[in-house]
Amino acid sequence: MEALTNRAKQIDRSPMTAWEKMYLPAIVKGLGITFSHMFKKRPTIQYPEVQRPFSSVFRGLHVLNRDEEGRERCTACGLCAVACPAEAITMEAAEREHGEENLYREEKYAAKYEINMLRCIFCGLCEEACPKDAIYLSETFAPAHYDRKGFIYGKDDLLIPDPNTHREAYEKAAAGRVRHKVSAF
Amino acid sequence: MSTTEIIFWFLSALAIFSAIMVITRKNPVFSVLYLIVTFFAISGHYILMNAQFLAIVNIIVYAGAIMVLFLFVLMLMNLNKEGEPRKNRYLLWSGVIAGGMLMIVIIAALQTSKPEIVDSFSKGDIGLIQNLGMALFKEYVVPFEISSILFLSAMVGAVVIGKK
Amino acid sequence: MFHLLNAGIDWGLAIEKLLLIVVVVSIALGFAMYSTYGERKVAAILQDRLGPNRFGPLGLGQPIADAIKLFFKEEIIPNRANKVLFVMGPALAMMAALMTSAVIPWGDKIIIGGKEVSLQIADVNVGILYIFAVVALGVYGVMIGGWSSNNKFSLLAAIRGASQNISYELAMGLSIIALLFVTGSLSLKDIVVGQQETMWNVVYQPLGFFIFLICAFAETNRTPFDLPEAENELNFGYHQEYSSMKLGFYLFAEYINMFMSSVLMATLYFGGYDIPFFNEAASTLHPNWIALLGFLSLMAKTIAFVFFFMWVRWTIPRFRYDQLMHLGWKTLIPLALFNMLLTAAIMLYLQGR
Questions:
Q1: H-helix segments, chain C
Q2: Could you read off the pLDDT of C51-102 as tens digits, one per residue?
Q3: Residue B46 maps to which CATH number?
Q4: ipTM summary value
Q5: Residue numbers of the domain that contains B157
Q6: Across the interface, do C46 and A34 touch by the CB < 8 Å criterion?
Q7: Is C40 inside a domain boundary?
Q8: Are B101 and B146 within one domain?
Q9: What is the pTM of this model?
Q10: For chain C, how many structural domains are there in total?
Q11: Number of structural domains, chain B?
């Protein structure tokens, strides 16, 4: 049979010579190999203090975006919920009242917007489906919880900080692609 | 009472107590463990007589090797009540008779012997390894070598049986 | 020590020896504690990891955390286990491990208040044989623990351990006999003094040292001879049913054994407390300083050996059981016998000249 790759190695199964039977040369060689590892660079990342940089295409926790004036972009059209293969997204729409123009960009907005992070498979289809650039996958992952309730993220968990009041937090979260630091609790 | 005497009586009591325990325990594993304690007590006696080599060798050979092999066999045996073989009455009587004969022989031997070392605690230095070596390899070299041939033959026998 | 008995009790000596015992045992325990840390650190370094580094600087508090963890774990005695022996097992293992320290010369004499104090608990003139006796007793801790657990795997592991120890004791003894030809004494103190005057014994007995080293690995149940605790075949080994500090004792006894056999190798073959390239007898230093330096030199040698133990552990895989027995009975014992005959022949030749 033809080999698929050229990495296959023919193993020599001839009986061991007396020199090989002593095992000692092999053991000394092995000791040398392990000893040389003492001087290698350690790839360890001290996790809570140091964090591994995410790839720029990493698909992590969702973020509900705001526009430049701090208004929510989401219009509760439901396309993300339809696109979601895991059916993790639910929402309830509401109509914008007078005096709420600075809160919501369009006449319709999501009164309730929930993502079940246990169902979510982080495929990013919601991000692609959204016509209003309202939902993004950020470069963080969901932290652990003691109960399942904690994994159902509501609007207050998902919304990006308001640029009018928390400019710095917004910049930080939206830098480049939309980023969103999930606060530790 | 001097320290030596206290130690002597303590060791003697320990030796006799554990020797009795060896033959009265139902569980053979405990018997073996008590036998080890007996060996230790006897080694203590050897030390009192300044026979250090004998004391240590007693522990190495008996407690360290032979008793381990005993334990080995006992631990692998199934010590259930059901598995216990029926005791033969003739075997019991023959055991009593053989044991009694052995006791008579020992008593006879002890009566005629003159215990000399016993009343000179840790004074003699015959038990020190150097003197012992000199005695074994000069005066008693022929019996010593003959006994080693005995051991060799036992070893060869074991190998032959193992090869079968 | 034995002369103590007939001379009544010399209280000064008794207190001195008692203090020495306390110090030596605590050093051994402390060393064992930190060799658990060392083991993890060495393993990490050899595997490109960092090892424990959270508790205290460089993770030096790790052994304390481990000890606290072990102490607070639930103590479980299996229902069908033999309770007396179950408790006795770890105690015996620990005792046998610590008893070796009695005859090892930890340093030269020191002078306290005009009184000479020897840094050896007991200068027995059958020192090496004493060590063999204690090593032989170490088997009981394993066997009793394994049997009394009432668990098949524990029993199998215990029996493996016992037969392994007995097999390797033979080769060890034979390699020591060749050493005794060279030193002419069984007292460890005399052996060290002899090495101070001439050369280290490893120069005269390289093959003997090598055999002793391999046997020391087997006697301490360290990889590549850690068959009594081969997880893949025996779950966890002879201490499978143990928990809490009783398990801790077993694990600890292994490290103390490792420490003691390292000290022993340093003493028998590498000059003990002898400081290399330094003439102790001719120096003008205060004897206390010499004793301290000697002790440090012994410790340095010991640490080197302990590191070697760990280095080997994280390099070589475990032997198969038949390979182990093959190596012990068919390779090491003939080799040790050959070494013995060779040494004897050379000694006789040198005497005859």
A1: 11-46, 62-72, 83-99, 127-148, 152-183, 188-197, 201-204, 206-219, 231-234, 244-269, 287-313, 321-325, 333-352
A2: 888 888 888 888 888 888 888 888 888 888 788 888 888 888 888 888 888 8
A3: 1.20.120.1200
A4: 0.80
A5: 128-164
A6: yes
A7: no
A8: no
A9: 0.80
A10: 1
A11: 2
User: Which of A154-168, B75-89, B133-147 has maximum average pLDDT?
Assistant: B133-147
CB contact under 8 A, B4 and C140: no
Q: Enumerate the residues of chain C whose CB falls inside 8 A of the CB of residue B57.
A: 129
Average pLDDT over residues B34-38: 90
Q: Which residue, among A21, A24, A34, A49, would best test binding to C if mutated, counting the most C CBs under 10 Å from its CB?
A: A34
**Does residue C125 sit at the B interface (CB-CB below 8 Å)?**
yes
* Contacts A41 to C, Cβ<8 Å: 48
Rounded distance, CA C213 to CA C261, Å?
A: 9
Chains that touch B (3 or more CB pairs under 8 A): C
Given an 8 Å threshold on Cβ–Cβ distance, is B56 in contact with C5? Answer: no
B-C contacts at Cβ under 8 angstroms: 79
Residues B34 and B88 in one domain: yes
Within a domain: C253: yes
Nearest chain C Cα to A31, which residue? Answer: C315
Q: Tell me, yes or no, whether C338 lies in a domain.
A: yes
Q: Which residue has the higher pLDDT, B126 or B144?
A: B144
The pairing of beta strand A135-137 with beta strand A108-116: unpaired
3 state DSSP class of C4:
helix
Q: Which of C46, C50, C312 sits opposite A37 (nearest CB)?
A: C46
